[in-house]
Amino acid sequence: GYRVSLQGNFFGRNHKHVTFPVYNPRKHIKLDPPLNLQSNATASKCQIWWSVWNVPWYLVEILQYELQYKEYSMSWEIALNKTPSSSLPQIEIEATELHSGIAYVARVRCKVSENENSYHSQWSEWSQTTVFQRADVPKLSEKILNTTTQLLFIPLSFGILLYFFWNCKLSSSCFLTLGQKVSPALTFPRQLLSFSHSIVCTMGISR
């Protein structure tokens, strides 16, 4: 610990003021703000991550963060706050918390966890911001149409193939049946013989 005092000359007289009788630096920490804040938004959630620098290794694992985000056109005074559940420099925002087609901006700050007894700090300054926007969600009707098309494509294709196969088989059976009842090979010679007999009779009369 240290003893911190202020001393100065006022109106020709020296004055001394003891600010901290016992000052322990580990109880008065102010960290640098996080940096490299990045985001990636999808239709289901937005992932935001960052990094810290100039922080001793023994403090990295006991840090806590606070994320603040808002609509891009709104004031920070009405921003929403989120606190990660772990000391990892990342957080997720569910898509249900975001409006489609609206741009958002976020920032983050850090300090030593309040659950830590050996160290104590105040919040750092806010980091630089990152801008993100939730991806559009496909319309429900389009989802249903695509799903229905996929479900019907295979059985419909199978039904068409079965239909053509059955028709071809039926046509072949009819052709064979008709060929047995009315055979061109049996009827054609009789017609030809009758026609030849008529010609012979005609020729005989003319003679």
Automatic annotation (TrEMBL):
The keyword Glycoprotein applies. It is a single-pass type I membrane protein. GO terms for molecular function: cytokine receptor activity. InterPro entries: FN3_dom, FN3_sf, Hempt_rcpt_S_F1_CS, Ig-like_fold. Gene3D superfamilies: Immunoglobulins. The keyword Membrane applies. SUPFAM superfamilies: Fibronectin type III (SSF49265). Keywords: Glycoprotein, Membrane, Receptor, Signal, Transmembrane, Transmembrane helix. The chain crosses the membrane at residues 144-166. It is found in: Membrane. Residues 33-135 form the Fibronectin type-III domain. One of its GO terms (cellular component) is external side of plasma membrane. One of its GO terms (biological process) is immunoglobulin mediated immune response. This is IL9R protein. The lineage of its organism: Eukaryota, Metazoa, Chordata, Craniata, Vertebrata.
